[in-house]
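Closing statement on the flavin mononucleotide sub-project.
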Amino acid sequence: MGKFIVTPVSTTDYRRLAEKRLPRFLYEYIDGGANEQDTMAANIADFRRYRLKQHVLRDVGDRDTSTTLLGQASSMPVALAPVGMAGMMARRGEVQGARSARTAGVPFTASTVGICPIEEIQAAVGVAPWFQLYMLRDRDIILGLLERAQAAGCGTLVFTVDLAVAGMRHADTRNGMLGGGLKGSLAKLWQIGTRPAWAIDVGLRGKPHNFGHLRDVVPDPNDLNAYKAFIDAQFDPTVTWKDIAWLREQWHGKILLKGIMEADDARAAVEAGVDGVLVSNHGGRQLDGVSSSISKLADVASAVGEQTEVYLDGGVRSGIDVVKAVALGATGVLIGRPWVWALAARGEAGLTDYLATLQKEISIAMALLGVNTMEDLTPDLIED
Ligand SMILES: Cc1cc2nc3c(=O)[nH]c(=O)nc-3n(C[C@H](O)[C@H](O)[C@H](O)COP(=O)(O)O)c2cc1C
């Protein structure tokens, strides 16, 4: 693959362009995983291991990539995953991301720790995003955020449960993004100085850079270290299934429980009354050494697929991966890093192009597999 990119096409192309555009610490914040990054690598490698069965001469003239994700019509079985600080990767990044998602006809998920709050996204885009939340110690903050999400018209709550404590992402310390005192601050300034286009477009013109949902509760949202201290203190390691039952009572929309890797947890989630489970290891950013999400999908789908919708994220890098996940039992997938790379590289237009390519890849793969609809994507299309 050449280094010179006229028109970015693949996820790798956008990743490379994002690297050129972003200050080092922001690029590595997206790119990195926990500890030795074994799980992050496995998420991608294991997708590649599954082989598809090609079928010919089956009339694939009427292909339809559309589907329904938690009651919402979607042009393809893909949604944009919650990614913290996306608004630091492009100017008002969550708004741009949500606009691309609207153009593509897929759901966008706003992170608890996004830069643009749901109200800004809703007002600018005209569509309420899905809203992602973690359990925080202070339940009043949770209730306040649920109220805001409801008022903004969010229909789906993506509730993340694999963050009882924050994973060890070494790059964020190594490059000075977190901690490091004066040295860390100077390192960040230097890294920003090498990316003047970003510094003007996002650094200066993309303000305010605080965390839109936590503005009123984080002591100094402009200070990343203060924010990290707040979040570390607020992550609640005492959360149990009882809290999910409590949440179920508070939230009247759909709940997608994010971070389920085992069949027994998936069964408990169904019992707690959620509307979907998301097989996810947080893109390999939490427990390093856990299996890839794709290798767990079939287990979870066979345990609870009849009772609830099953989703997957982690390692989806192409339309081929989307097709594999749906064939293995997913109603849909979420993509994390890929959408942020496309956004960082080329803004809303880049992400819109990226999503169009993804849909084209899905449609072409369906044609060559000999199927016309999402329902036709079944496990027998995957080699044992
Ligand atoms: C930079 C970054 C920030 C993230 N922030 C959040 C977040 O705020 N909340 C959350 O539930 N998941 C978060 N995630 C996890 C993603 O939602 C998703 O699970 C993961 O990125 C999927 O893997 P992929 O990047 O290989 O597609 C984040 C992931 C990345 C890469």
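Residues 11-206+234-381 form a domain with the TIM Barrel fold (CATH 3.20.20.70). With this model delivered, the sub-project is considered complete and its resources will be redirected to Aim 3.
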